[in-house]
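P.,

For your records, the input lines for the assembly:
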Amino acid sequence: MLAQFTLKRRGSAVASEVDTEAVESAGKRTLLSAEPGKTYIVKEINTDDDEMNSFLFRLGCYVGEPITLVSKKKKSCIVVIKDGRYNLDNLLSEAIII
Amino acid sequence: MRIAFAGNPNSGKTTMYNALTGRSEKVGNWGGVTVGSKEYKLKKEFAGDKEVIAVDLPGAYSMSPFTPEEGITSEYVRTANPDAIVNIVDATNLSRSLFFTTQLLELGIPVVVALNKTDINEKEGTKIDAEKLSQKLGCPVFKTVSTENKGLSEMIAKAISLAGTIQTAPYLQADINLHDKAAVDAEDRKRYSFVNDIVAEVETRKVKSAESTTADKIDAALTFPIVGILVFAAVMFGVFWISQTWLGPLVADWLVGWIETFQGWVAGQLENSPAILSALLADGIVGGVGAVVGFLPLVMVMYFLIALLEDCGYMARVSAVMDPIFKRVGLSGKSVIPVVIGTGCGIPAIMACRTIRDERERRATSMLTTFIPCGAKIPVIALFAGAFFSGAGWVSTLCYFFGLVLIFLGALLIKAITGYKYRKSFFIMELPKWKAPSLKFAFKSMMERAKAYIVKAATIILICNTVVQIMQTFDWHFHVVEEGAENTSILASIASPFAILLIPLGFGVWQLAAAAITGFIAKENVVGTLAVVYGLTAFIDTEELAMTGGANTVAMTMGLTSVTALAYLFFNLYTPPCFAAIGAMNSEMKSKGWLWGAIGLQLCTGYTVAFLINQFGTLFTEGHFAAGFVPGLIAEACMVAAVILIGKRVRSHFDEQYELHRKVVKEGAAA
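Structure tokens returned:
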């Protein structure tokens, strides 16, 4: 429900970009294997660190919410969560399952 | 009456606070600039006849703290009972900000929402229906632009008029067991969906946030490993070059001329007075303080440039690009911010460590950040560069670069002593929107700093110089020390024992020891004291330098070679910072063990660096080791032994803890 709602807000253009196939096919695909420019839905967040999980939650990064990969580097990446841009290291990207 | 300013990080709280109170607290375009609460009364034009105190708080994403500075905010709004809360909302990220807003609204304290940064929204074509938002939230909403003072007076007037009333919350958390994680999570999700519903109704966006923009391309380049680091190195080099080689000295020369004229005038006025008085006033006070003030332009230019950097949004990108490197030595990308701030002053730099979440990383950063020479050390660097190295620009660059190297080495040492990583160290940093840096803010920040510098020169430095002057003029029987018997003065007899320790470093004379010791009170004192004990003034006379090519009076009087001068300079740069900075370290580390560890590490570092430079420098230039090689080597061996001993102790303790932790995990897995 939540996911549908937020997608609506972001407009159909972005919604169609969601790579549903990729999300469905891979059992545990993390943000590490995401492609730049695409928007994904967060399926699971598992940092092994409750505080970190809830911190991500407060930024708007939680199950059912969209997350867009803007660019990717060897050890980090830039993502859009809600209306903000963040730099994440790979350790964190690995914990975000899409 | 107290009004608290709360909101997400980098929403513009401090900028608004400064505009309303007339203060100039530190602002910057990244999350986590403010790390402690500050309060001051509102300007008359906003408060009227009432006495209204504004309280600026660190940014927080919610009421449950993640980093130490977030805790200050939730603690304050929960327990200090402010009469009203101004919730500053970043209008460019409404959907995230309102989560905290709904929590604030539950407290019962009247809340006024300031939709800040609306100018950016206008530029991007994002529309927010403030009236509807106000209806939905059940509190007044004002559109503001705090950098341009727009909408502030209406907003604050409303907040003042609401004080004492009771806020009704649009969304109340259900009565759940707060220890039940699942229930809390479910509640938070409900809250977010409530927020999302509101945002969907009040906000229309022309540009979708997820769309790629030119700024994204810049970010991608700046956070790209090699490119980003080279850009950062170039930027910092530019800052040092402009402030310390080009523009700074240009202004400084002009200023020194005036100071000399003034000193001459004072000496002229005192012509018929006793010689002691003349020496005390003209040489001691005016000369010593003047020597310090003469370097003010270098510091000011530096502050101006750093303020521009902080204002445009570059800092977040730097910390993103440096994170992998810093992580390798056991620090965090966020450690870069204290390092850059530390080029100005070590105290705010140490305080800025509060935004680092991991305790070990936080303590290690606050321990190491002062290896970067601060503004107070600029006079010391400039004096030595001018007197011994013909004012060469490479000296100051070397000092900063070497400071950075020491930070890395120190971090590796701390990593080795405290053992392997026991907790995953995640890195997440918001990349704020770029903005054109405000020259006005940079100018204000520079003037603020200049004021502080002059005040310091006129108080602490002045007092120290006077005391030093008196101590060197008299002996223990309070007789004036005769010429040729300077070693009997009070100062000489106190500093001499320390000087013995410094012989292996190449500068074992009491004058230099005394200057280094007064440096712990304030680093500018090194210059002031040298000026007093050697009766030197007007250090950076470039014309004279050009003629004598470095072997000028200053260098001759001190009796140092280039090698020992460099050793002495580095000794002063990398030994512990001033007492004020040590105090800041104490309050950030919250551990006596770490504090003493830090002081010990810094003392050993300064000593070792100076020792190596002196001994090997002399070996290269003169073909033999300098005096005191063996005693110095013994001292170094003791230091190494101490480090190994401490490391062993910390590690054994650490293994115990880790073992315990593993057992719990195993049991948990079994169950």
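Two observations worth noting. The longest helix of chain B spans residues 225-269. Chain B touches chain A through 47 residues (CB under 8 Å).

Regards
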